[in-house]
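Notes from hallway chat w/ T.B., transcribed later so I don't forget. T.B. wanted the structure written out for a chain they're using in a teaching module, and asked if we could keep both sequence and structure tokens in one place. Agreed to drop them here.
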Amino acid sequence: MRAPAPAWAADLNDETMELARATLGGALKDVFARVGEVQLWVERDQVADALRLLRDTPGLEYQQLMEIAGVDYPERPERFEVVYCLLSLTRNHRVHVHVTTDEDQPVPSVTGLWPVAGWLEREVFDLFGVVFVGNRDLRRILTDYGFSGHPLRKDFPLTGYVEMRYSEEDKRVVYQPVSLQQDFRNFDFMSPWEGGAYVLPGDEKGGALPQAKGAYTPVTADQVQKAGATAAPSIAPAGTSGSYAKGTNPPGGPDSGNRPADPAVIPSKGQGQNQ
């Protein structure tokens, strides 16, 4: 029985790169480790054979295709990178296989190695426009059937080319040119606690001016100050048993004769205090 895979396999990078050079041969353009993971750059037309060798060669054994990602660099002659993310379950190790292409050059499909690649290749085709030759079901998977363009390309406009909406007149979903200009939208970056110097929809009906900064109050600060100054002074009620405890009982009050001049408080054992 094979020993379990190590918990952390970053120390396998050096031997993985050496074995990949010996196994892939001329199909390998470059290999290096970056951010703790091995990157293999292979020829586009040999990517299927290279991935088969990475899967079946003892010592490499990358059994699972975890993801196919796309990257767009418009300034490059071959602007697209297609990245295959592989995982070895027996070695607990990952590698990234990179190929480059453009709008016209197709990439060989790897659906014969991993059937799940059909879905992943469709996603890259839909979002970037990369064509995979050999994929029997290469069609859009995330956008609509009538979608125009590929939304993850760097030159794709933020608003798209057309917008979809439901038409009450036609009683169906219709497509029309985009009317919202994303680059010229107005954004309010002011604090909502301070308030903005603008009139909200509906304020024009009352003819009121914008509210001043601060929390809303129906009166001004001057009105609050004047109201406090003209308030009638409070008069203390006549002395009661409660006022004695507060020290406000007037001389000669009902409790004045009951106050001891010099109370003698003698604690007793187990019976509280005796006066």
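Follow-up for T.B.: DSSP finds six helices and eleven strands in the chain. Might be a good example for the class.
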